[in-house]
User: What shape does this take?
Amino acid sequence: MASSMQNNRVSPPGYCVCCRTCNMWCWRAFKWLPVLLIVSIVTWSYYAYVIQLCIFTIESTVQQCIYLVLYHILLIMFAWSYWRTIFADIKPIPEKYKLPEAELEKLLSAETEDAQRTILENFAKDLPIVTRTMSGSVRYCNRCVLVKPDRAHHCSICSRCVLKMDHHCPWVNNCVCFHNYKFFMLFLGYALLYCLFIMSTCLPYFIRFWKMYQEYKHAHCDKLFDIGTFSKQCMDLNGDFGMSGSAGRYHIVFAFFVALMFAISLGSLFGYHCYLVAHNRTTLEAFRAPMFRGGADKNGFSMGAYNNFKEVFGNSPNKWVVPVFTSLGDGCEYPVRREHQLQTFSAPQDALGYDSMGITRSSFGDGIVYPLPQQDEDTESLLSSERWDRWGERARPFDERESSSFDEL
Assistant: This one.
């Protein structure tokens, strides 16, 4: 029971500190391989596009300049967004969510799970949290020894709890979360534009090379060259397409197919995350709706498509397409629907007060929250007791099957 509150990982016999350190550094190096792969592909694409296409293939100087300017703008924005996604400052959970030593000792010495649940409820009563586990208890991480803020989850790869965790992305070697979700969206968007631009500008030359290849094969020039026979048509085609004259131009054809392949995958992924932004969900919440006091609600954090968009990208339209942090809030508190707000937090009203829909602004930023019905302590206490009665004999908050599935992601 109390032992379920901590994960004591015991090393096997003979497992020395040196081996553990070596494995740790090998694992860290291994996690950078997908990033190095992306960097290598982008570096090669720069050579294929700038050198082989723009310098060696395109003859018009004006066309060269236009292509190079547009290409480098997209490349800079793409690389900038990618850099910010990888090296974003993922801040830790605030200290107020961490259990003090005294509370932790009481939690570990509690004899029943009900007692543990009561200790966590008392500790979290002043915290701005509205989500619960499936069994109705406070969401607690026994690895980080803290009460999880709303939408926060434990990442087993990073070995820490992350605010508004979306998923751990191996292609950026980082968690996609509150602190870099805007950067991740811009990375996907600019990467998609980068691929579409390369694909569209390489397409005419791909078609041209394909036609030349068909003519080259139709005239059996390769066989004629093998036996030492030459013709004017084959000599002209060999100068434009032959192996000796255009080996580098295979880079253009390959760049077209690579851009097409990545554009398809990026398009589907970017479209999916646009859907998540419009509905104010994370990838984890899309697969399993967040649990509130009144039950699960997949739209519990949705404040309308435009407000959901501003929650990620901020209030300044001139900064929406720039990879600088402009997301609203602190990553711990989020506006929720009226039915999920059972208590008010420190949310001073502005001079405008409530509008015609009964909406007021809060300290969250410029996000909106609904005003809460006034409840006295007796009413809230009664609701709390009734809520626990409703769970009956269902799984307890610290069942292994629950902590090992969703909440410990």
